[in-house]
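Can't paste images in this forum, so I'm doing it all in text. The chain is below; anyone willing to post the predicted structure tokens underneath?
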Amino acid sequence: HSHTLSQAYPSPTDIVNAVESGWIEPNYVLISLVEKTRPILRAFKISDDSKVEEIIIEHDGDAYISPIESS
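Text version of the structure:
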């Protein structure tokens, strides 16, 4: 789903909804539209203990480096 005003990372609500619904098998694909001319697409696995793990999406474009991960 899209995050129009935040980064492409599961929000606390996304995590709670995934765990409470039992939908922990699918990968969650998020797109951030914070920068309208540079959408960011990322995928995540959310475990039943609320752990969030990024799943790398392979593509032929430039790699996205998260400002959070690069600090």
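The longest strand covers residues 40-46. The mean pLDDT is 86.
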